[in-house]
C-alpha cells in the first residue's frame, strides 16, 4: 500500500465506492485467492481480445462507414469518433460475417464505388447493399485502428477458385493479373492478410451441412489456399455451435490431413430472456451463469482436439461470443437489425468472458466479440453524429494491460461457482495484472490475493461499477457508466481490494 494511503483512508475510500447509492446495504464476503507468479499457464495472445464486424444492421453502414460526403465527421468515409475510440483497442477484426460471408462475393466490393453492383443482403433483411465498403475499405479500417485483418471466405455459395483468387488479390506482391488489379484499385502493396476462415457456421446459415459434408468442402477449398507472397495463411475451419462434440468429432474424423487446419472456431452466445435495459435479477443470474458453461466447453473441446492433435498445432478460437438479449422491435426499427443497448450487466458478462479466455490461455488462440458497433454485444453505439462508448468498451480498455503477458496459476475457492468471484492474473517481468469480477447482485467481495514468495511494492486500480445492473450509456448521457480509480492495498505478499456487487476491477501491481 502506498505510504500516502493509510489503512483507514483505504477503508473509507472503499466504503465510498461500495456505498455509491444512498441507502444501499449488502453483505460483504471475504475471498482469499492464491496466486503463483512463477507458475505459468500460457501467453495471453492479444487476439483473445478480438472483435467482429458484419454487414448486419448498422454495424458497417452508418456505424463504422458513413461515406466521404457525410455530414458526420469522418476520415475518408470512416466515422472519425469510431476510429479514435477503436485505435489501439482492437488487436484483430473479423469480417464480413457471419452469415453474410457465405453469400458475399468479394469482387462486388472492389473497383470504383460508383461502378460496384447493388446486391441484396438475403440474410439480414433483404436490404440493398451498395458494396461501397469492400476489401480495400476493410483493410484500411484495420490499418487505421491497428487491427490484424481476419477475412471469412464464402463456402456456402462460393467456389474454391473464388476464395483462392481473393487470397491472391490480397496477398500477392505484384506481376499477376489479380495483384495488378489490386494496385490499379489503389493498393500497390499487398494487404498481407494472415487469418482466413473457410466458411462460417456451415452447420447452419453457411450451408446446413453435416460435419462430414463440411470436411469434404474444407479439404477441397484449402487445397488451393497455399498462400501468396510473404504471408503464410492461417486457415480456420468452422467449429461447433456451443459445445457440440458431434460436429467436432465428425469434422476431424473426416479430415485426411490435419496440416490443412490451423484453427478451429467455435461460436457460443449467452442468450438473454429480457430486453437489454429491462432485465430481472433472476435473468441476470441465468445469463451470467452461462460463462461457466463456456469455460467448460473450451476445456472439453480442447481435450477432444488433443485426441487428434496432441501437439496442439491447431488453435482453438471462439470467433463469435457475447450476450444476445431479446431485441426491441422499436429500437431495431430505429437503429437497425439486432441493435441492443449495452448495460452494466453486459459489461460484467464481457469481463467474465475475457477472464475465462485468459485463464484458458494455453487452450485458446483467439476470441472475437460479436459485434463491434451497433449489433448485439457492441463496444460502440452510434446514431447520426453521436458515437457512444458502451460499458463493455471500458472492460476491454481496462483489461488491455493483460495482453502479451503470461497468465499465471490461481487458486480460487469460488472457481466451481458460476456466481462466485471470477479472477485472472498475468505477469511480465515485475508487473502483475489482476482482474476480479463480482457477478453477484447483492453481495460485496473483499478479495485478498496471496502472492507466495513474490512481494508487492505498490499498486493502482480501476473499477467499473453501477449499482443498477440495467444502467447504460445513452446518446443523451454518454458517461453514466465509466471506470473510476479504485484503492488497492498492496504490500509484502498480499494484494487486497474490495468489489461492490456487479463490478469489474483491475489492479496493476508492481513487484519487487
CATH H-tier superfamily of the largest domain: Glycosidases
Radius of gyration: 23 Å
The total count of helices amounts to 12
CATH top level assignment of the largest domain: Alpha Beta
Strand order of the largest sheet: 21-20-24-18-17-16-1-19-23-22
Structural class: alpha/beta
Q: What's the helical proportion of residues? A: 25-40%
Please tell me what the overall shape is. Answer: globular
From the N-terminal CA to the C-terminal CA, the straight-line distance is 13 Å
Number of strands: 24
Our count of domains comes out at 2
The low-pLDDT segments are 1-23
Share of residues in strands: 25-35%
Describe what this molecule looks like in 3D:
The two termini are 13 Å apart. The longest helix is centred in the middle third of the chain and has 19 residues, at 290-308. The chain contains twelve helices and 24 strands. With 512 residues, it is an alpha/beta fold. The chain has helices at residues 7-18, 80-86, 135-145, 160-171, 177-184, 211-222, 245-254, 281-288, 290-308, 329-335, 344-359, 391-399; strands spanning 27-43, 50-52, 74-75, 78-79, 92-95, 119-120, 128-129, 148-153, 195-198, 234-241, 263-275, 315-326, 364-370, 380-383, 386-389, 406-411, 422-428, 431-438, 443-450, 456-465, 484-486, 489-491, 494-499, 503-511. The model is unreliable at 1-23 (pLDDT under 50). The protein has two domains: 7-43 and 408-511, Golgi alpha-mannosidase II (Immunoglobulin-like); 46-55 and 91-129 and 148-382, Glycosidases (TIM Barrel, Alpha-Beta Barrel). 26% of the residues lie in helices and 29% in strands.
